[in-house]
Amino acid sequence: MYISYGNDPKFTSREIIEEFDKLARIAIPHFNILFDFKSLKIGSDVKQFMNNMKDGDIVLLIINEKYFNSPYCMEELVNMFEALHGRIYPLFLDSGRSFYDSRVYSTILMEWIQDKNI
């Protein structure tokens, strides 16, 4: 399982990921959870890590306002969107916007595809 997230200023996403990883290791010891600050070392190829996400069985997206404003997050999402159809599980953090309506994030994703040439 890969986790993709937007790093917010209060590190709320990281706290959720660390707690999830800790609990998952207790409940399912053989289950491998990969995310950048656990898996990447200084000098690691971030692009390769992002490309590997689409080969994962499951990707958990922790979506907040930062997610949709991050070029790295959006590149990850665009790269894995078609490859992982049906295996992407979003977790929405309160951001003051209505991300619960799939039309909102579908529209944002299409804007990134068109405007950023990802």
From TrEMBL:
Range of residues in the leader sequence: none
Keywords: Receptor
Keyword Transmembrane found: no
Pfam families tied to this protein: TIR_2
Swiss-Prot/TrEMBL GO biological process terms: signal transduction
Domain called TIR: residue spans: 30-95
Protein name: Toll/interleukin-1 receptor domain-containing protein
Organism, scientific name: Candidatus Thiothrix singaporensis
